[in-house]
Amino acid sequence: MTAAEDVPQLRPPGEVMRLERMGASFPTRLSFMRQLVRRMIRERWRFERMRLDLDHNGTGVTLHAVHGRHRTYTLVGFSGSIDPRERTDRVIANVWDTTFSLFDGVPGAADIERLEANTPRQEAGRFRASELVLARANRSGRIFDHVVDSLAGGRQPCRDLLRDVGYLMRTTAVYGSGKFGCADRGRIAGREELRGPFQAELLAVYLIRWMSVDLVNHMARQRSGLKAAELSEDLARTLGIGNATGLGMAPFLVKHPLLINNWVMARENALLRVRKVERATPDTIAEFRELLDDARRHVAAWAVDDPEQSARISRLGDDLARLDTWCDDGLDGERPFDALWRLASRRFSLEGQEMVVALLLEHQGTLIDGLCESMSSGGLPALKAAMPLGDLINLIDDNYGWALAIDHAAPESRQRFWYYSQEKLEPRVGDRYTEPGADLEMAVAIGRDVAMLRAGLLDHDPRISVADFLVTAPEWRSTVRRVQHLAHLPYAEIRDNLLAADRRPVDILRFKLAFFGANGFDPKSDLWTRVTMYQGAPLPADITGGTEPQWIFPCP
């Protein structure tokens, strides 16, 4: 190894931004749930149960407020009990056990009356800028009734069953950023506590988790009075909020390239900082070993039905066992974490490598936490109209070689097409050769479009300006603008063909969900997955008390 090769470097985008690796992502210390919880603990946010107006079936209205340093936010919930046959993960559902609005401030009686008429209708309702988030959730068919029955009988529910499921309720949608009339992102982006990505939406999910525990405790008390038990804090911490996620979030990564670059750049810079640590003390080595033990227990409890993911989990367990053996003396030398990373990159599966990233970043929190401030972004700047076409061609050649290398004319390279469902305004994927709708295709094929642009530019004088070119070919405006502003942002583009027959959209979902902080990735097909959010996270009383357990690898 040469001296230059021995110096840790950022991982190359051609390695990081491939779908196969993106689909092996894990939550890290920089994930958005973790950022929110650390802020709440640091600032000692206070939680107030303002209203729990529910009958014995859990039907009624709830208000759960959180008081931050500067503002109060209130989760307004409307609960019922629907026929179990009507519970579905699909976004096309029309009824749910509970629907929610995250209200900006404390709602008055008129606000609650208006929300009660609209929130249960979800997309069909009418909302105002005072509503920051709209969400809905269903009770877990596997454990919700078991938990209520157990508590009503004066005993705690089965820990193993709670561990296997991981949540009392599962959300099927959490909408923010101006959807259906709720507050636009610009209204709250300047607020310190909501400046980071998806902080309002994830605050709503945290409050839904708190509400779900209140719900089972209330229903048990309604049934048995003083004889009922209350769900223990220990068991409550093991429960998060389930989430069923389909293609709705996938195009987001294509539409917000600056933001995605900043997410990944922060993570990659964090990894680089950790790899540059010169020495590990005996205490820090012991701390890393404890973290590794937690990761191994977490992986051992991670069970899914999908055969491919099950095989990956098995291989991951083997990787972590190998790492455990290596740590017996491997962390004693110079740049120990770089040595660990090099071991993983040579010998571990993609799941194993990305788990190592999570381990290293978790272990060195004080070194990397400041990078969270770099993970937001604005939109793309204006088009550079005066740029000569020759310069544009050079940008493509220098930065989009991955796109030019794909044979976009091959049938298997263009088999899929992405479109919006007219019924629910949600993305879907179709087969170009067997299904109608390709004429309504969404613009997600960045590699294909850049390659086509490059071919078309060769028919023009390279000395003319972009403006002159677009006068005759205005359809290329967005692609030209994208190339101009992303050429020097290494992690802005997914370096794969999203139309290819062998690409798995679920890889995109896992990548984004990992940045959210979700765990328990449980793919149900190539198109949707279940995950758990906030499993193992501190409870409201923990946050107010300023304590945070280790919960990146929840071990119920």
Description of the molecule:
The protein is globular, with a radius of gyration of 25 Å. The protein has 24 helices and eleven strands. The protein has a nine-stranded mixed beta sheet with strand order 1-2-3-4-5-6-7-11-10, sandwiched between helices. A two-stranded antiparallel ribbon has the order 8-9. Helix 6 crosses helix 9 and helix 13 packs across helix 16. Helices cover 44% and strands 14% of the residues. The chain has 556 residues and is an alpha+beta fold. Among the domains are: 180 residues, no CATH class; 202 residues, no CATH class. The protein starts with a helix and ends in an 11-residue tail after the last helix. Strand 1 and strand 2 form a beta hairpin.
Indicate the topology.
Elements: H1 3-6, H2 13-16, H3 19-22, H4 32-42, E1 46-54, E2 60-67, E3 72-79, E4 98-104, H5 109-118, E5 131-139, H6 144-152, H7 159-165, E6 167-175, H8 185-188, H9 199-224, H10 233-238, E7 240-245, H11 252-255, H12 257-275, H13 282-300, H14 307-330, H15 336-347, H16 350-363, H17 365-368, H18 389-399, H19 401-404, E8 416-420, E9 427-431, H20 446-457, H21 466-472, H22 477-486, H23 505-516, E10 519-523, E11 529-533, H24 540-545
Helix pairs in contact: 6-9, 13-14, 13-16, 14-15, 15-16
